[in-house]
Amino acid sequence: MGGTHFLQEHSSRHTTHQDPLRDTTPAPITSSTLSASRTPQDKAMESLNGSSSHYNDTPWFMLECTINLDRDSRRIALFLLYLLLFMVGLSENAVVLWVNWRRRRTASGVLFCVLNVTVSDIMVVLVMPFFMLEVMMDKVWLWGRFLCKVTHLVYCVNFYSSSFFLAYMTLERYLALTRPPAQAGGQGERRRRVLICVGLWALSLLLAVLENVHVDLLGWNEPGCYMMPEYSYVEWFTTITFLCLIFQFLGPASVIITCNVLIARAARSAPDVQGGRRDIWLLHLYSLVFVVCWLPYHLVFFLMMVDDQDPRLFSCNVVDVLYFSFSVVQAVSLAHCVANPILYNFLSKSFRVNLVNAVLERIPRVSGEDPARGANQVGGAGPGKERKMSNTSTSHSDVPS
């Protein structure tokens, strides 16, 4: 799955060439793993030995790479970035899960999606410590074959499920604005949501397994957790790249952008919808953040696939930059674990009021005052007013209490 690479260049996409200027003399287990781990220099040697056809002019891979990229600095920067994502992402998502779990019996479909997005993000945050240590040890894996496969599977499932539930959440928000209130609740509606939820998790797991089946612990100079299909690597990589691009990015992005545009249009034409210009701009911010997080990743990943199809298309320097930048854009994509709680929860007045309620309920009473009522006073809105605001706002996370 294009994005199913580990945070530290775990997938076969990166180990296909590895770093073009890195050690090019691994001790592969089989001939198929050798072909799957060739560097640009390996391809040059094959061409010189007559194993590859070449043009009349000098192919690029017979020339040395002239670019010098600082991989040690990148490794330190990535470790610090993953550490920051882990600490902030775990804190944010734990708070969001705690507050929203208290309201899990609400009829809101948006809240139902928020809970699933939060669970998905927490899954990948919890496996980040393995990746942080691995990136510092230059892809050496010390935790055995079982954790190699499990951590990769968890990452892959989150890679798809987070996008699926963000798209479903946006669709639920649009339907909440366009459907009559009488159709928004009921047992039939809840069963439909549960079935959709199960279906999205099952689809995420299926797509993740397609990649995870090729993940294993390989012992070259040092043990490493790699994904390396035994046969037809280029064909398999191309298929996975397009599956990833369609299911994880293009499909969800189309739903998110289209629904947000329709919600903004409906909000402008409906005088009873509260929130005004701020929430309309927030809708566009939802779409922008999704694209910014994932477009660079898929663009680099697609170019890596193109390089596998035609190794003579890009210069040695371009290939080196591609594989060097992949870890960077992958870290940018993982920033969604930090961005989602902020965009879909903390920017919501409804969520902040419920957070205050939850905190005050944990504080021992020093008088006979009802903590919940005090929280509503702190939030500046009574229960009825808050509920009205939640139901009519265009903000994704403003859901009924």
Automatic annotation (TrEMBL):
Location in or out of the cell: Cell membrane
GO function terms (MF aspect): G protein-coupled receptor activity
Entry-linked InterPro entries: GPCR_Rhodpsn, GPCR_Rhodpsn_7TM, GPER1-like
Region feature Disordered, mapped onto this chain: 1-51, 369-401
Pfam families: 7tm_1
UniProt entry tagged with the keyword Transmembrane: yes
G-protein coupled receptors family 1 profile domain: residues covered: 92-344
GO cellular component, one term: plasma membrane
TM region positions: 76-98, 110-132, 152-171, 192-210, 236-263, 283-306, 321-343
Protein's UniProt name: G-protein coupled receptors family 1 profile domain-containing protein
Organism, scientific name: Synaphobranchus kaupii
